[in-house]
Amino acid sequence: MVNVNQKFCQCCGMPMGETDELYGTNADGRKNEDYCKYCFANGEFTFQGTMEELIEICVPNMAAANPDMNEEEARRSMLQWFPTLKRWKTLNS
């Protein structure tokens, strides 16, 4: 069963888990609940490319984590989901 309260990084879509271990950090060092530590550190995004470029980086990881999904299905899924994430919704508004 899917946990409806599960948090996902609002940049790369990675599941954030049950603790704050994967949370990024704000400029003041506090944890940021919206973004993972790989996408957001010290109050800044670590990835400066486009949404499409990030999707291409994430495709192999998503396909590997989901054995029933090939890379094209992963890409299609992310192209639908990423525009709803906070980072990309803000840039595309």
Could you characterize what this model shows?
The chain has one domain. It is globular. The chain has a two-stranded antiparallel sheet. A two-stranded antiparallel sheet has the order 3-4. By secondary structure, it is an alpha+beta fold. Strand 3 and strand 4 form a beta hairpin.
Secondary structure: elements and pairs:
Blueprint: E1 23-25, E2 31-36, E3 40-41, E4 44-45, H1 51-65, H2 71-81, H3 86-91
Antiparallel strand pairs: 1-2, 3-4
Quick recap:
Helix content is 34%, strand content 14%. It is α+β, with helices and mostly antiparallel strands and 93 residues long.
- Kindly estimate the percentage of residues that lie in beta strands according to DSSP: 5-15%
- Counting DSSP E segments of at least 2 residues, the number of strands comes to 4
Could you give the order of the helices and strands? EEEEHHH
Major sheet size, sense and barrel closure: 2 strands, antiparallel
Bin the helical content: 25-40%
User: Which residues sit in consecutive blocks of at least 5 with pLDDT less than 50?
Assistant: none
**Helix/strand-derived class?**
alpha+beta
> What is the 3D shape?
globular
Question: Average pLDDT across residues?
Answer: 92
How many structural domains are formed by the residues?
A: 1
In spatial order, strands of the major sheet run: 1-2
Instruction: Give me the Rg, rounded.
Output: 13 Å
Straight-line distance between termini: 33 Å
Number of helices: 3
